[in-house]
Amino acid sequence: MKGAGTIVAGLLSVVMAHHAALLPHEFAHSFMAWALGYKSDPLVIHWGVRRATDVILLRDINQRVDYAAMYARGDGFAAALVGFAGPGLANGTLYLLSLWLLQRPRVRRSTLLFTFVFWFNFMNLGNFPSGDMADIAKGLGVSPWAVLVVLGIPTAIAMWFFFARTLPMALGRMTTSSSERGLIITVSIVIMFGYFGLVGFEGYDRTSHLLSLASVCLIPAMLILCWPTRRWMRTRIEASGTAG
Fold it and tell me: Which of 86, 92, 123, 187 has the fewest other C-beta atoms within 10 Å?
């Protein structure tokens, strides 16, 4: 029962962390549009149609921002700022905050709290490579590849840090079970490169489609690379378990 309870608590933490990361993302878009004069009420967003996917995954939640009005006024820079507000301001700030919290003794002493903060860190990271990059590129009138280079490099560094540092550290502190560690790794990789990676297929340009396809194709390679029995991963997990 202890193992089952850990898994259930972990899954609940995933869902709660997803909500805690995505809602600030959408409201950041909304508040930026309001601050720039393109929205009358920043608290009004689209919540979906009350299906299970909307309640659990917030799949159809939307910022409810009229980008067309910005382009009609020739204000592409405003569109770029609104696009950047979600991943750059909201999730960027919360990512750094959660990274700091993971090092706090009070957080580390509580397995449940540590688990939630870990997934909160993960979900904020997952919102970095979003479809908002297409809005930023269009607003600035530059190539999507230029935005990918400028914003993609820090995102890639944060991704590396998560899978090379944060993930093994968390595995060493959350569980000693090999099967549970394998489950956590699988869930994190599938969500990161599958769920978040698929966003580029949702009505964006060819560049976004190619990046989404590449992201999904990375899933098996990442599973092999990060599996808990790999020597480098096992070494870092063991080191985190003995750290203070």
Answer: 187
Could you tell me which residue, 111 or 134, shows the higher pLDDT? 111
With tokens 């190619």, the residue in question is 210
Range of weakest confidence among 44-58, 112-126, 158-172: 44-58
The Cβ-side half-sphere exposure at 208, using a 13 Å CA radius, reads 19
Average pLDDT of 62-91?
A: 94
Q: In whole angstroms, what is the distance from residue 105 CA to residue 225 CA?
A: 30
C-alpha–C-alpha distance, residues 2 and 198, integer Å: 34
Q: How far apart are CA 125 and CA 109, in angstroms?
A: 24
Please name the residue that has the structure tokens 């989404």. 212
Q: Give φ, ψ of 172 to 5 degrees.
A: -70, -25
The separation between the first and the last C-alpha atoms of the chain, rounded to the nearest angstrom, is 28
Which residue has better confidence, 6 or 15? 15
Task: Give the whole-angstrom CA distance, residue 15 versus residue 213.
Answer: 25
What span, in angstroms and rounded, lies between the C-alpha atoms of 120 and 99? 9
What count of Cα atoms within 13 Å lies in the side-chain half-sphere of residue 49? 1
Q: Which residue's structure tokens are 């659990």?
A: 56
Write down the pTM of the prediction.
0.91
Query: Residues 6 or more apart from 119 whose CB is under 8 A from it?
Result: 10, 13, 14, 16, 17, 18
Annotated domain spans of the chain: 2-177
For a pLDDT cut of 70, what percent of the chain falls above it?
91
